[in-house]
Amino acid sequence: MKAISRNKWLTHFVLIAFSALMFYPVLWWIGASLKPNAELSLPSLFPSRFMWSNYSDGWVALPKYTFTYFYINSFKLNITTMLLTVISSSLVAFGFGRIQFAFKKVWFSLLLLTIMLPAQVTLIPQYAMFHKFNWVNTYLPFIVPSAMGGAFFIFLLVQFIRGIPGELDESAKMDGCSWFGVYWRIILPLTKPALITVMIFSFLWHWEDYLGPLIYLNSVSKFTVPLALRMFMDTQSAVQWGQLLAMSLVSIVPQVLLFFLAQRHFVEGISTTGLKG
């Protein structure tokens, strides 16, 4: 019993030590956001005087716009793309997971190949195409592709749908349901954990996307939070690093809240994807 107790204490000690090691950069980040520029290079974790004004001053530091404006832009864009991604990906995944059609395996293989294709390869052709469509400096380069689903999300949902017994579809069709009725009444409710996983990933990826908005958005009035942080550095001759770090810390709050609020469904969706029912 004593050996088991010692092993348990040793395990907890190792886990706590590694957790502290992983959390240290975040702790330094919080401390640095409260420091003046003169103390950023000092080895101390926290400042001699807490500058809470870094948060209030940083929020209104950019000319003509506050961070409220960029937050609204990010939320409008990310919520729209997230909802469209969930709807389109679930529809396509339902087709691959339940409906038989010609060359189904070939199309699914081509879909998987697009996951392996680096985004940098398609960057220039996509920009040229969107430029011809006059979509540059609009949100359409983000909204329209999300309405066509995402290869990774479709693959994730297909694996989940395949684990749902097919007898449920047959029972629903015997009761008069169409294929869309099976999708809406049977598949969507049962894939709730996987759908929430798709929502979380989609929101996180679009919220922290810097390259896409940098390429397609030119007007400051359309900038998202990542672009606002970069502009924060461009608009001051002497960068107030404390204010910049404070705003970057504030920028991750929606991501952290979303993950913790949906953590149970997220873990369930990851753990059950691909399991056969």
TrEMBL record:
Transmembrane intervals: 12-31, 75-94, 106-127, 139-161, 182-207, 244-262
Domain spans labelled ABC transmembrane type-1: 71-262
Keywords from the named record: Cell membrane, Membrane, Transmembrane, Transmembrane helix, Transport
One Pfam family, short name: BPD_transp_1
Matching PROSITE patterns: ABC_TM1
Membrane among keywords: yes
SUPFAM superfamilies, sorted: MetI-like
Bilayer disposition of the protein: Multi-pass membrane protein
CDD domains: TM_PBP2 (cd06261)
Subcellular location: Cell membrane
InterPro entries membership: MetI-like, MetI-like_sf
Family of the protein in this entry: Belongs to the binding-protein-dependent transport system permease family.
Name of the protein in its database record: ABC transporter permease
Lineage: Bacteria, Bacillati, Bacillota, Bacilli, Bacillales
